[in-house]
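thought: fold this chain, then report.
action: predict
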Amino acid sequence: MNQDSDPKNQEIVENRELSIWEAMIPIIALVAMLAFNVYMFGDDALSGSNQFILLLGAAVAAIVGLLNKTSFETMMDEVAQNVKSTAGAILILLLVGALAGTWLVSGIIPTMIYYGLQILNPSIFLAACVVICAIISVATGSSWTTSATVGIALIGIANALDISLGMTAGAILSGAYFGDKLSPLSDTTNLAPAMAGTDLFTHIQYMLFTTVPTITITIIVFIIIGFNIETSGTADTSAILNSIDDAFDISPWLFIVPALVILLIVKKTPPLIALLAGTLLGAIAALIFQPEIIAKLGGSDTLSIQSGYMGIMNAITVDTAIETTNENLNDLFAASGMAGMLGTIWLILCAMTFGGIMDAIGALSRISKFMLNLFDSTFGLFASTVATCIGLNATASDQYLAIVVPGKMYAKAYRDKGLAPENLSRTLEDSGTVTSVLVPYNTCGAYQSGVLGVSVADYFVYAIFNWLSPFMTLIFAALRIKIRMLSENKSGKID
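observation:
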């Protein structure tokens, strides 16, 4: 994930002590209402009804807060702070929609699909998705940017090959979050050690012990799946290629645009600037390589200043569809621009409202303390941390809070147990960073499902790296594998 605001500045509110049952009332109510809503609406629940349910959950939390003498102003201030922290994410979402639009009409995405169909064998496609996205996310430090660029292209190739989009999205996210938790350029990779009290590179080195086995298992599973899936798209690859070639001016020169965007991000250019540059470069490429398409989108048969401007603006802002001779490709070559991201933004704002009020009334702090007191043993401390991180991803709906809150709450407990801070920072990443994408109304879950066009329910099982990571860290803790003690920090030795 990559946002502009500094999550380290977020404060965890501590008010008059709530009982654990008082703190849990809004969560129980939210889970119950969401379950009923999803049962009634099915896949359409994220079209708006879940957003309102989050507001109802926030209302329940507000009632609990008012009964416990938390002022309405305090709650609104915390909501405002939460919403403010998502400003960068919202702008990124809008620019991702814009970029997807210009990269479609310019032929960049179709070109990626065109050459990808010829290179990526269906039997190794899923494993290749993991590796490709892992490399790019390590280089960029951003799972969001990885999904918005190469992820969209891989989804397109999977669609053309008739490979499950749920499987593909799971493979993409497995690779993307490998980099999100491991890259020194990632904000969460920097945030976790800052909260735990260790340095960045000690943290990264220590994470390798759990991360390498997890990603290895993930790749092996996708290799096995790849050799056992049946695809119907392979038989008609030539027809698909011809359809793409007829609809677009396919050229390897179009790869210059995504290469420049990736270069900008590697050079630590802020993601907003990189995505804006990618959008504008895509627009220029569209005018050069696809003048007929742009003219048509602008309501004319020939390219002019007016039709060119209107065609580009339509691609950036609203629904765009390019018709081909292959009906199966028509849905693939459609984008919704910035307007297509408004539903996701709506969801994020409602989720931040719930998380803000939960924080303001002291519920998040109380739940964390309760989890801390559940266990006495070293393994229990690790298990409590994992449960808290996952729980906060589900309740606070924000990846940063799932790192900041447990980091602040558990740092002293780890020291008291004689555990080096990198144990905590690794656990925060293994459970807080990677599981955020598994919650539909979390900022990460909402973003990734919106960008990839695949619901969380469809990719959940296949996001193997994401749900396996917490189990891996618990296995290491239970077997006391690579558990570093404070006394060992000075000598640099590890168990």
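thought: worth noting. Residues 7-87+341-488 form one domain.
final: tokens above.
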